[in-house]
Amino acid sequence: MTFKISNKVAWVGKIDWEIRDYHGKEYSTHKGTSYNSYLVRDEKTVLIDTVWQPFGKEFVSNLKKEIDLNKIDYIIANHSEVDHSGALPELMREIPNTPIYCTKNGAKFLKAHYHKNWNFIEVKTGDTLDLGENKLVFLEARMLHWPDSMFTYLTGENILFSNDAFGQHYASELMYNDKVDNAELYQESIKYYANILTPFNPLVVKKIDEILSMNLPLEMICPSHGIIWRNNPLQIADKYLEWAKNYKENQVTIIYDTMWNATRTMAEAISNGIKEVNKDVTIKIYNSSNNDKNDIVTEVFKSKMVLVGSSTINKGVLSSTAAILEMIKGLGFKGKKGAAFGSYGWSGESVKLITEELKKAGFETINDGIREMWNPDDDAIVRCKDFGKSVGEIIGYTIQ
Ligand code: FEO
């Protein structure tokens, strides 16, 4: 499938309806994804990005139906990651001398991936490539989300090809933001931002400010995953600016794992305590052993406060607790509060360990947490509720 998205541009990518895991098993793709590749036909012809390697043959075969490959004058590799560069080996077998425009790091990384000395042309921010009537303008986007990332802007058609930025893992044949279910679209967009872009918040703000200050006419933002933003395309840039500024909703997320339901009982009692003093706050509770980790991270992203609980096992925490804390730590959230809880039988290290991990992850811990021995009795439930009440009060006076 290919289709025209503007006078001079056709989408020539691949919708992957089936994929459910990305980056190994690090990112869940509940709604599939797409690898968006674009063919620009001016006096010169340009291919922008390709698709993931398993679809390489299919991609090249479809592209041949769209154009004689020898008529492609330039290839633009906005990003070297294999989901966008994976079809290059298949393509370059057919047109080995075609120049590949990319950043300096892009050339380095593509060589490291494929061990080929293709004809790389390194570009920097502000460099242009004349296509005849229109031209391409390159904008480095270092660390959004890799050191090699860049955006490419097409004048005349006024399209920003933003690669991963503004993308979503969202398979849809409807293609455009004005056609798809916007609740689904924004859910996938915020999940993508929370799980991939959070560590780069300051760079996101800087890059978007830079783009806005250029006052480029903009008809479309075409990312390399998911749908194209054509109806008010800057709405996603505005959202990114909001998300990049240590985003918080009036929400507390409680994440726990439990062996025989004692820590779960604590989680629910704490939640009841929060609700008793703070009716407006949204409380979401997840058992980290049986919920999707990226969905949990998305809820953490939206939270003012995160409470993490685990039973003590082997002087440590349960494995799903350790895993989610590791993910949270890596993302470098800022401006969030946290606290720990958990049940134990004898040694009882989990609460202290979780508190330490939350601190390392940049959370402001509101206290030393709460731990209860064995299965909570009525008194323990009251203590957990009181703990929840103190959380609810703190949330109540936390300024957004
Ligand atoms: Fe979609 Fe960073 O690759």
From TrEMBL:
PROSITE patterns: FLAVODOXIN_LIKE. SMART domains: Lactamase_B. Keywords: Hydrolase. The keyword Hydrolase applies. CDD domains: flavodiiron_proteins_MBL-fold (cd07709). Residues 252-392 form the Flavodoxin-like domain. It comes from the Bacteria. One of its GO terms (molecular function) is FMN binding. In the N-terminal section; belongs to the zinc metallo-hydrolase group 3 family. This is MBL fold hydrolase.
